[in-house]
Specification:
Blueprint (H helix, E strand, L loop, with lengths): L2 E4 L5 H12 L3 E6 L3 H13 L4 E5 L8 H16 L4 E6 L14 H22 L3 E10 L12 H20 L6 E7 L10 H4 L1 H9 L9 H11 L11 E4 L6
Parallel strand pairs: 1-2, 1-4, 2-3, 4-5, 5-6, 6-7
Length: about 250
């Protein structure tokens, strides 16, 4: 049995990852920002299927809270599993900002830096002492780091930086046998970015028309991919960017 730590696991892609990893036989510790009610539902769903789950509050943009979060994580590991270390870390928590370069504010840019770059960098740094040797890290990027849609320049820049971070982590953590990869979803039907892909029929149809498999992605497409990448047998893939987008813009 492995223990996965997932940031932003109370909804959307993080929720799907938590559920798929639990179905694969893993236990889960995931974070939520403000919606404890949603987090409690995910915990109940995972426990209903016979796995353990714990939800911890975390604001990924508040980097000064990471030390106290690590303390809460260590306490949860000891109380619920009698352990001091976990096995997998998924840096998933994020927000979307849609604005042309000419209209992007410094406040929006700084928010994206704090959540998508500075957050994963320093949270990973803080949690590495609690990760087992031979563990796994999965950083969640975006197809927008490969192809370009107007209005997503700042967001895509952050994801591009996260992909570089993946490669350097893999290099520097090799002596601990920690495997690090990037998972890059395409356009997915969630509430991310105001639910545009899910709720805007015209946008959804446009994405489907540009995707060889003929539809936009679903949360379970990404949850299943994350579980596959973290499967026990998949230990030799390292420092890679794996895009799960149905082949859009191939």
């Amino acid at each position: 049995m492995k223990i996965a730590v997932i940031t932003g696991g109370s909804r959307g892609l993080g929720k799907s990852m938590a559920e798929h990893l639990a179905a694969q036989g893993n236990d889960v510790i995931f974070t939520y920002h403000t919606r404890k009610d949603e987090a409690d539902k995910v915990v109940a769903s995972i426990e209903k299927h016979g796995r353990k789950a714990v939800a911890l509050q975390l604001d990924i943009a508040n980097h000064t809270s990471f030390a106290s979060f690590a303390g809460a994580l260590k306490t949860a590991l000891q109380q619920h599993w009698g352990r001091e270390q976990f096995d997998y870390l998924i840096n998933n928590a994020g927000v979307g900002v849609h604005a042309p370069i000419t209209n992007t504010t410094e406040e929006q840019f700084d928010q994206l830096v704090d959540i998508h770059l500075k957050g994963p960098f320093f949270l990973t740094q803080t949690l590495l002492p609690l990760m087992i040797d031979g563990g796994r890290i999965l950083n969640i990027s975006s197809g927008l780091a490969r192809f370009s849609y107007p209005g997503y320049a700042a967001y895509a820049m952050m994801k591009g930086g996260l992909e570089v971070f993946t490669r350097y982590l893999a290099k520097e953590l090799g002596d601990r046998r920690i495997v690090v990869n990037t998972l890059a979803p395409g356009a997915i039907e969630t509430d991310f970015g105001g639910g545009a892909v899910r709720d805007n029929a015209e946008l959804n149809e446009m994405i489907a028309s540009q995707t060889p498999l003929g539809r936009a992605g679903l949360p379970d497409d990404i949850g299943a991919a994350a579980a596959a990448l973290l499967a026990n047998e998949n230990h030799w893939m390292n420092a890679q960017r794996i895009e799960v987008s149905g082949g859009i813009h191939t």
